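Re: your question from the hallway

Yes, I did run it. Sequences:
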Amino acid sequence: MDLYRSRYDFTNFTTQVHDFDPGIHPYPSGLFWTVPNPSLDSINLGLGTARMTMTDLAVTDFFDIPNALFRFQDPVSSPAKCSFDIHWSGPVTSRGGVTNSPGSTGELVMSSATMTWSASNALGFSFRSNPEGTTSAFAQLGKISNGVFAE
Amino acid sequence: MRKLDLDSMTWDLPPPRDAVSHHAHHLLSRRGFIGSMAATAGAAAGAGLFPVAALAGKPANSAPKPTATITNVFGTDFHLTFFGPGIDPSSIGDFNGFVGVADVQGTGTAHNPDGTTETLLFDTDMRFMSGVYVGVDGAVHKGAFGFV
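Structure:
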């Protein structure tokens, strides 16, 4: 979950001020930004609906994506926590197979999503999203088999 | 919080190459940065260890393996996969189940350590995986995971 001041800069990240993620374990070759046990509800590929929530999840604020990957700033990070509530609301606008991931099979549906979230770090920073006016840039649900399950 | 100098020319890294994304959407997301500089190739996954503290009571050996998709950024391999039409977004390997991706953008209110308040823009890449997977112990487990 990333925060930018004034405008997005997805090239050089000159305007990014916070990056909350769970880290890479073990660094750098392990599980990437992945945590267990989110609360999931109402997964329906026919309707394109689902919900995921987590509360007070321990994360790290690496401040920006380059530093999250390569950890070159000083201090490199701050302990943080976040909460989020994501709704995939549908409708399904398209369906298709897994065609661009060798070793994976499955079906994917395009949907729409909204999200509210909050985060804070140990340095005294806190953020709460505005529930109004969010943009669903990309929302997808699917049923996937990969690795040994796709063989 | 101290002011951060995020000028890429000051990074102890090579400068980004021209953006070459396999999906235009990646240019508009946090993954766009990685995708613009990375060469992605499928490769056999190493067995990563999940942080014990994050397992919340589950045996450590039931941790999932990272995705077999490797993304090389500036010479470092990350077990990272992108999302997009036709792409398996799972961050774990040997997995069978439901997945979800939500890239949502918006605004919110920030309270800074110096007492100031400001409006910031946010961009997220949130995902879930729920189903069965082969853990690092080689056994099949059932579980749910979030990509945050």
